Amino acid sequence: MKKLLARLEKAADWLDSDDPEEPAYDPVHFGTVLVVTLIAVGALYWLLWTLLVYEGGLPAKLSALAQLASGGNPGPDAFEGWLGNTAALILAAAAVAALHAIYRKAAAKK
Q: The whole model's pTM is what?
């Protein structure tokens, strides 16, 4: 019985040993990564939905603008939601510019 307990204690010590070079698992960091990922996905969904779907989306506004420029009558509600579509376009352009700047900075370090 003492041999069995000694072996179990040795196995428990082996499982309990931590390598200082190995990163530690932290549930708080894992939870934070999950929450931040969900927020980022939600923000991306809102941005793309507002840009492409809300009140017809930006393509419908551009089509109505082209129709108006060619002398046609796009209709009374063709430009509804243009403020939201334009705000989403500006935010999308700012996000792409920020990501491009981060990429160029990382590429310059190589």
A: 0.68
